[in-house]
Design brief:
This protein has 159 residues and is α+β, with helices and mostly antiparallel strands. The protein has five helices and eight strands. The protein starts with a helix and ends with a strand. Mean pLDDT is 89; it is low at 149-159.
C-alpha cells in the first residue's frame, strides 16, 4: 500500500507547479505562493525565494513548515475528484556546496525561472519531508510518514 500511495503522491507533485507555503509568524500562520520541485525519492521539496522576504525571516525563527497543493479545477466535479496534498517538514537553505546539484532538480521542473534562481539574493530552500497527508473527495485522508516503523507509515482517517 505504501508504494502505491507514494506513486499517487509523486504523480500529484509532478503534475503541479505551485503550492502554498505556510510558515509561522509570531504564533500565527503566514502563507506564500511558491513554485516547487520534488526530489525523485519524494523526501525533499525545493523552492526558491529572495533572501529579504517574510517567509525567510519566519523560517529562520522556526523551520517547521507545511506546503499545500491540489489538483482542483474549480468545477463541481472537484467535490468528488479533487485531491489535496499537505507536505509537513522542516525547511532549510541549501548550502552553497549542494546548490548547483539541487538547482538542476528545480530548473528541470521550472526552466523559466532560471534568471530568478540566478539573481542576486535568491536562495534555494529544501523541505525535509516528515509526512505527507493526502485528502481525496474532501474526506478520505491517508498519511505517509518517513522514518517511522512500517505499521505507522499509513493511516486512513475520516474527517
Amino acid at each position: 500500500m505504501k508504494e502505491q500511495l507514494l506513486e499517487e503522491i509523486g504523480s500529484l507533485l509532478k503534475n503541479q507547479r505551485l503550492a502554498v507555503l505556510a510558515t509561522s509568524a509570531e504564533g500565527h500562520p503566514y502563507t506564500s505562493l511558491v513554485a516547487f520541485a520534488e526530489t525523485e525519492d519524494l523526501r525533499k521539496v525545493l523552492f526558491a525565494t529572495h533572501a529579504k522576504t517574510r517567509k525567510v525571516v519566519n523560517i529562520q525563527k522556526d523551520p517547521r513548515v507545511s506546503l499545500l497543493l491540489d489538483n482542483r479545477s474549480n468545477r463541481p466535479e472537484d467535490f468528488h475528484q479533487a485531491e489535496a496534498l499537505t507536505v509537513i517538514g522542516a525547511a532549510e537553505e541549501i548550502p552553497a556546496a549542494e546548490r548547483q546539484k539541487q538547482a538542476v532538480v528545480y530548473l528541470t521542473k521550472h526552466p523559466g525561472l532560471k534568471d530568478f534562481l540566478s539573481s542576486p539574493g535568491c536562495l534555494l530552500f529544501r523541505i525535509k519531508v516528515e509526512r505527507y497527508s493526502l485528502v481525496r473527495r474532501f474526506q478520505d485522508v491517508v498519511e505517509v510518514a518517513f522514518d517511522e516503523p512500517e505499521s505507522a507509515l499509513s493511516d486512513i482517517f475520516d474527517e
